[in-house]
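EI: anyone free to look at a 429-residue chain?
SC: sure, send it
EI:
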Amino acid sequence: MANNADVFAHKVRGGLAALVVAGLLAACGGDGSDVAATIPDPEPPVQPDPGPARNPAYLDAKAGDIIQVKIKELHPTQAAIGYDQVYYKLGRWQGDFDRGTWRADPVSQLDYLNRTVGKKFDDYCEDMGATARVRKFQTIDEARQARLNAPGSFACEEAFGTHADVLKTAVVGWDGDLYLTDGHHTFSALRGIADGGPELPVWVKVAANYSDVPTREAFWQRMIDERKAWLRDGDDRPITTDQLPSRVGMASDEEPGGMQEDAYRSLVYFTRDIGYASGGLPEFAEFQWASLLRARIAAGQLAPLSGYKTAAPAPLAAILAVSTLKADLSRAGATDSYAAAVREASLVMGALGDQDVVYDQQTASQLGRIQLVPDAASNSPTKTARDTLEELPRDDVKKDGTPRGAGKLWFSVNYRTCGKPAAGTCWGY
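SC: here you go
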């Protein structure tokens, strides 16, 4: 019997013979494929994983930088917005050029257009850090020609981005994209207006650059730890970062990826300067107030919005019925209108003490609570709050028939119910 060494030598000699035969066949015109197939091809080298593609445009941006971007480049860090706040802007910014109320009085008609269409440009100049328009419209034709997406058609007092303190803020993410930490409502309204849209240029301030964070998961954890994301849906239920919308703006059938509606976030917006003062607040302060109101409702200390007339099919007159506070803070006017809901929410907010916790260690004082005081002086925050409440549902015509600034609720409710201001719709003119 052959030993192992002899067997191994025999196999080696056989393999060499096969190679020689293959070579001879190739030289004689044969392809030798049957023999050569026993020799495997070498494995290709392993290529390193390059990772996901990153947006190079803002990788070098530093905290404090002011950058011009398009609205479509801004990613939300919250799932929902107050639709009625956006409706207020869309109603206020779109005056009816053919409105018959002042057709025989071009001076009043131009005044009306400066208060509506002109307000759009005032707000845009201010929100982009350029103060305000250089001047009001001098003619109706000038108002017709002005467009946000045509920069030469209007002018601001200063260059865009001049005042960094008023700019909305964004963080550069791990992927190089921009993630909003402030301005979801402003940019949603600008995206929804006819002369705005996803391509409209806007200016934002870089709050931080986290492009050095190695993974998506690490980036979002840092955002959560630093309270730069609000992971609650439109009904205040917890969500994951995978459930955040892909774009700013209201949801629509025409374009996927929009933001949900949070009715209590809308309610809190209308309590501004009544229940709380804006300015210098932490991110997502209004959502924290909305969470407090929901908690009071759950505890039976506040009626839910479903108990008020805030939208159709309720009649416009019922939704916009005036609700007020008297000097001693006793209630007057309607009890079930949208303004009544604002009044009751504001009373809950105003009754808190400075150190009362509103949400997650944030106190009423930190979130701008206005303390409502009975029989307050005429120049006090309480008197301003009472006046603001009374003006919310006010229409845009003075007793003498000339234009005036209408209330936020009037614009919002009319736009939600009637669409763009136009004669023949339900705007009431």
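EI: DSSP finds 14 helices and eleven strands in the chain.
SC: 👍
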